[in-house]
TrEMBL record, chain A:
Source taxonomy: Bacteria, Bacillati, Bacillota, Bacilli, Bacillales
Protein name, entry field: Maltose transport system permease protein
UniProt similarity note: Belongs to the binding-protein-dependent transport system permease family.
Compartments, record wording: Cell membrane
Domain named ABC transmembrane type-1: residues: 89-278
Any one Gene Ontology BP term: transmembrane transport
Pfam family, one: BPD_transp_1
TrEMBL record, chain B:
Gene source species: Paenibacillus nuruki
Family: Belongs to the binding-protein-dependent transport system permease family.
Keywords tagged on the record: Cell membrane, Membrane, Transmembrane, Transmembrane helix, Transport
Parts of the chain that traverse the membrane: 26-53, 92-112, 124-145, 173-196, 225-244, 281-302
Cellular compartments per GO CC: plasma membrane
Protein name per its UniProtKB record: Alpha-glucoside transport system permease protein AglF
């Protein structure tokens, strides 16, 4: 940055070297591909086992590509069997969608207040929000459990949703986003007579849409994957989410590993789809949160 | 402050009976209220009551009649409790996974960043375990590491290992197995953060080093590592905190066993509270966990100011 003039010279020095390097680059790519496949072997094994008849699952050497296919039977047994995986799926979707809605709306509103409205006590309140960030969820399980038992929120989906919805992280992330909006936008809207409700809904929210998407996707992954809260705060099997469901399923089916693997594949599939469709958001969101700390 | 307040009162006098400042304040509180109320009910009130519960002996079966104030007895007991001590020790051993994760992630991040084609493809591959459900991953590993039938031991036996370890079923190997799975699942997150850190290193530093004829190793040691130190520090702290919160893997794979060899603090809390129903004692353990994590966060704040080379 300090030597803008020397920069072109240096890069021209580089050019012949770059072209020569490409062979090394190909070799490294191939090596990384092999390591990557080894890295993903647990997934590959899982997928392959879910396609096989039970008798072939533990055959050694491993049949990575099944000799006999049993896909339809396995997945039908999992999805429509007993315990019913479809129900767990529906419960997880319900809980995730409700959590995302509540979490995104409350976080965005609070983030807007903490960045674009000037009011007395704002900084103190924001510090309180940040302080809750330091409380590990695991430390307050006991009082939350007692509270849930006495308020009738125990063993309900809405209870689980409320527990997963409120976190300082969303407020913090979206506040950063709102702060990048120029105040002139807001001021000129105010002069035109718009109140904060209208400015928030019609100007501010559309401008931070990518950040909202990132946060919603991350919240989906975290909620879908959560095991601890459902384990403690749900009891009735008909309310179980996918994570509780596969564990129960694994216990109930016992030795039918091909079916268990069909279950775990089904549990991971929505995550994989969301991740592949929105990988820029996911990786970008993690990197943003990570570097900002 | 005063001037702007009186100014706004004057300008809005004709239109409305509320001053602009008051309007702003009302709007601010209304917008922040849902989040603030939620955080208060679901996090702050539980946190405050945690301290109270930790001073009681509370067998939950009897409901609120089962509460008995016992002062600091729980904490006295805590420091003599062998089971809790073991769980703490296991948490400390588990920390060993953090430097390994950092090392692997850094190497992968550097290679993926500069040295390969199809960069985003490799990002996806190494990130996948991180987004996958922990429960599903745990179940898969349980089968892979199955002592007699699992493919891992099948592979080892085919290499001529006659007595392969029983992994999760063996007190010596259970915790290392958990560590391996933790490293595997955390590499994605750490790699992505490292990749972001690498982007922020000015390229002319490397160009200057090239002119000086520095070797790749020298550039790595003298530019990459020091410039990444804030990232490494952040990941170290996040890794330690995450490690102290380990629960899902243990709950699915070992339930703290065999012979308490994988009993970690959060699992111990879970066990005392929801299996033994000793709410007061579990609360005291939670206070201890909270203190540990607060201490680490404190180190983070202090370290960010003092130690990190920005």
């Amino acid at each position: 940055m300090e030597h803008p003039i020397s920069a072109p010279n240096v890069s021209s020095l580089h050019r012949p070297k770059r072209a020569k390097l490409s062979l090394t680059k190909i070799i490294v790519t191939v090596i990384m591909l092999v390591i990557g496949i080894i890295f993903l072997l647990p997934f590959i094994w899982m997928l392959s086992a879910s396609f096989k008849p039970e008798a072939d699952v533990f055959k050694y050497p491993v049949q990575w590509i099944p000799h006999t296919w049993n896909v339809v039977e396995n997945y039908r047994a999992v999805w429509f069997g007993d315990p019913p995986f479809m129900l767990y799926y529906w419960n997880s979707i319900k809980v995730s969608v409700m959590t995302i809605l509540i979490s995104v709306i409350t976080s965005a509103m609070a983030a807007y207040a903490f960045s674009k409205i000037n009011f007395r006590g704002r900084d103190t309140l924001f510090i309180i929000v940040l302080l809750t960030f330091m409380i590990p969820g695991q430390a307050v399980l006991v009082p939350q459990f007692i509270m849930y038992r006495s308020l009738g929120l125990f063993d309900t989906h809405i209870g689980l949703v409320l527990l997963e919805s409120f976190s300082a992280l969303g407020t913090f992330m979206l506040r950063q986003a709102f702060m990048s909006i120029h105040s002139e936008f807001i001021e000129s809207a105010k002069i035109d007579g718009a109140g904060h409700a209208r400015i928030f809904a019609q100007i501010a929210l559309p401008l931070v849409q990518p950040f909202i998407a990132t946060y919603a996707i991350l919240r989906f992954i975290w909620t879908w994957n959560d095991y601890q809260a459902p384990l403690i705060f749900l009891r009735s099997p008909e309310l179980f989410t996918v994570q509780l469901g596969i564990n129960r399923f694994a216990d109930a089916t016992g030795e039918y590993y091909s079916l268990i693997m069909a279950g775990t594949c089904s549990a991971i599939l929505p995550l994989l789809i969301v991740f592949l469709l929105a990988q820029k958001h996911v990786i970008g969101g993690i990197a943003l949160g990570g570097v900002k700390g | 402050m005063e001037r702007s307040a009186s100014q706004s009162t004057a300008s809005s006098q004709s239109k409305s009976w509320l001053s602009t400042t008051a309007k702003e304040t009302i709007a601010g509180y209304l917008f922040a209220a849902p989040m603030l109320i939620g955080l208060t009910i679901f996090i702050l009130i539980p946190m405050v009551s945690l301290f109270f519960i930790s001073l009681t002996k509370w067998n939950f079966i009897q409901g609120f009649r089962g509460v008995e104030m016992i002062g600091l007895d729980n904490f006295r007991h805590l420091f003599q409790d062998k089971s809790f001590f073991v769980s703490m020790l296991n948490n400390i051993k588990l920390l060993l996974a953090v430097p390994f994760t950092l090392l692997f992630s850094l190497v992968i991040a550097i290679v993926v960043d500069e040295k390969v084609y199809f960069k985003s493809f490799f990002k996806i591959i190494y990130f996948m375990p991180y987004i996958s459900s922990v429960v599903a991953v745990a179940i898969v590993f349980q089968i892979l590491f199955h002592p007699s039938q699992g493919p891992v031991n099948g592979f080892l036996m085919s290499l001529g290992v006659t007595n392969p370890p029983k992994w999760l079923a063996d007190p010596t190997y259970a915790l290392p197995s958990i560590m391996m799975i933790t490293v595997w699942t955390s590499i994605g997150f750490n790699m992505v953060v490292y990749l972001a850190g690498l982007q922020s290193i000015p390229k002319d530093l490397y160009e200057a080093a090239d002119i000086d004829g520095a070797s790749s190793w020298r550039k790595f040691r003298s530019i990459t590592v020091p410039m990444l130190s804030p990232t490494t520090f952040f990941l170290l702290i996040t890794g330690i905190i995450y490690s102290f919160k380990t629960f899902d893997l243990i709950a699915v794979l070992t339930q703290g066993g065999p012979a308490k060899s994988t009993n970690v603090m959060v699992y111990e809390i879970y066990d005392q509270a929801f299996v033994n129903l000793k709410m007061g004692y579990a609360a005291a353990e939670s206070v201890f966990l909270f203190a540990v994590i607060l201490l680490i966060t404190g180190i983070q704040f202090w370290g960010q100011k003092k130690w990190v080379n920005y």
